[in-house]
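Side project, low priority. Logging it here so it doesn't get lost.
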Amino acid sequence: MTAASRGGSAVSALLRNSRRACPRCARTTTHPSVPLGARRHYADAASIPTTSALIAASLESNLSSAPPPMQHPVTSTETTTTEESPSITAATRYKIKSGLILTRPPLLTREPTAFEAAFYLYQKRLNERLAVPFRREFYFRTDTAADLDWRLKLRERHGVPAKDIGRYNPRGRVAWNDEVLVGSETGMTGDIAESLLADAEVRISEDGEEIVDDERVPVERPMPRRTEADEKGDVRRLDRALDQTLYLVVKKGEGEAATWQFPAGDVPTQEVLHETAARVLVESAGVNMNTWIVGRVPVAHYVTEPVFAEGEDATTAPKRRGEKIFFLKGRIMAGQADLTGNKHGLTDYQWLTKDEIKRVLPWDYYRSVRNMMTGR
C-alpha cells in the first residue's frame, strides 16, 4: 500500500469516527472536520508530501486566515430605557364583552312558492302515469263499508285514485296534458289540505247506508299556520312566525337614549366567553328558560372605537373606552324571558325575525351580526 493510500484511509477513519459526518460523507469529502496535524500514520522518512500532510497544512492556513469575531457595540440600559415612550395598550382602550344571540328555530316548513307547488304537482301526475294501476282488491274487502266508501269517493274524483292531483286521469286520452294552468289553485297547500280533509270523512255507515250531511262526524282540522300572536302582533310571545327563526333582543335604557341589542356583559378575568354569555343571559332574562349554548366559538363580533378628548391621540388614555363584543349562538327549548330584577338596566324584550330585527337594531350593530342570521 502506498503512502497516499494509507493517508486516505487514515483520513476516512477519522471522519468516520466524527459525530458530524456520516460514513458516506467520510468517504467522499476532501475536507476533514478535525485537525490532523498531531497525527502521523506513515513513515517519517518519506520525502514526498502525503495526503495527510497536505490536508493538515490546508487546515492550519485556513485557521490562521479566518477573520476575527465581530464586536457588537454594547448600549447602556439607561439609554434604552430613556428612549422608550409610554403607550396605551389595546386592553386599556377596549373592554371585552361577551353576548348571546338566543334563537328559537322554525317549527314549521315554509309555504312553497308557486313554481315549487307546480313542480311537485307535475311530479305527482307523472308518477300516476308511470305507476301500476291501483288495485282496490288488495286493500278493501268486497262489499264492506270501507269498500263502499272508497267507491263513492272514487266516483266523485272521476276515477282518479290519487287524492291530491286534481281532476287528472293518467289513463285517459289527454293524459299528456298534465300541466296546471296559470292562476289555478290546484296543487297549492290549501287545495291539497281541503282535498285530504274531504276524503277523510266517513260517508258510509257500518250498515252500508250513506250518511247524510247532518249526521257526519266532522274531521278535526289541523291548527292554522298563523297563531293568535301573529294576528295580534304580539312580539313578546314565542308562538309566532312559526316558519321562521326568532331572535331575542332586549332594550337597554329608557326614552330616546334607549337602544335595542342582544344580551351582553363584561368578561372578567376568571371567565371565558361562553361562561360569561351564560351568566349574562341569567342576569338579563331570568332563570325561567331552558337554553343551550351551541358552541364556545363566537359567530359574530361588534367593535366600537374609543373616544379621545379633543386634541389627544391614541397614545393617551381615552375619554371613553371602546368595546369589543363577541357573540355566541344559543337555542331556547322551553320557557320565556323575564326581565324582573335584571342587573343590566333592561326595560323590554322582543322575539323578532331577521327582517324585523333590521328595523330595530342600529345599522352598524345589525351589519356586524347579519351574516350569522338565517333567511328563515
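Brief comment: Confidence is low (pLDDT under 50) at residues 36-47, 74-86.
Revisit when time allows.
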